[in-house]
Amino acid sequence: MAAVPKQMRAVQIKGGKGPSSSLYIAPDVAVPEAGADDVLVKVAVFGLNRMDLLQREGAYPVPPGASPIMGVEFSGHVVASPGGHFTPGDAVFGLATGGAYAEYITCPARMVLAKPDALSHEQAAAIPENFLTAYQALHRLAEMREGETVLVHAGASGVGLAAIQLARLLGAKRIFVTAGSADKCAFCEKLGADAAINYKETDWAAELAKQTDGRGVDVIMDFIGAGYFNQNLASLARDGRLVLQGMMGGTQVKDVNIGQLLLKRLRVEGSTLRSRDIEYQSSLVQDFVHSGNLDRLAEGVGREKTDDDVHHIVIHKVFSWNDIKGAHDEMAANKNTGKIVVTVD
């Protein structure tokens, strides 16, 4: 392969933070060096996540030691692997703590996976954050069990669609979702949700209570935060678990009835995957692979959305990084059903 240059192009933010119009591609960013246990990858595609928008606005602190460059998931080709974990030229994809909005990225080898031939680079880059976030929330945090009921907010988002499929695989009795349009609701149901509630037209908590005969659900996966907190507590069944993974609806909650936590024995847990240490993240990556979920994703290529023995990677739109502003604007406007990915041209 060609020698690695000392400098690369990477997406930067004018002034360090700002609106989407402050994004630009800098031509002279230093190429990161790979340590003994790292892999240096030439990025082909990276995935877009809501945390990127928050980081751009200065509202998402970068974890200690992480690259200040945005982006936590990527696909591409190995350039160097000092520890011999991969061979230069290998097609890979992976999860990182930052740095994916660039021509090159270094990543711990145990967080990098060989790309199955059945997956395109666009599909591979759409996997890590979505499926690992959903897998962590349902499997590790909520400890969802077969026969339980689940509610997934933002069901048509990339993570939401992954959660629908994983909940089905884990044996959920019924899967409910909220989404913001009839088309999004229909898509969620096609992918495996038993009922999708349009929160723009219906009081979702009242509708959920009606559909569960007032019992509520066992697990709620939420990205909204304060805006839904009280309704979430009311919507949980006895011994229910609420996993908070976002704060799109704010961080300050008023008039919380904590009696529900005691009387219904509820558990509330918050988590962001990016803030976890490398050991945790890498173990989650390997657990996901060993569970057979990566194989299901590869097997799902070209299969009907109604096939329930595989997973499907739903890509909303592929942008060039020359239109990184447009990609951010698309997500900010909540236009996406599925994942937004960006090619490094």
From TrEMBL:
Cited InterPro entries: ADH-like_C, ADH-like_N, ER, GroES-like_sf, NAD(P)-bd_dom_sf, Quinone_OxRdtase_PIG3
Keyword field: NADP, Oxidoreductase
UniProt-recorded Gene Ontology molecular function terms: NADPH binding; oxidoreductase activity, acting on NAD(P)H
Species this protein is from: Acaromyces ingoldii
Domain of life (superkingdom): Eukaryota
Coiled-coil regions listed in the entry: none
Name of this protein: Quinone oxidoreductase putative
Chain ranges of the Enoyl reductase (ER) domain: 18-342
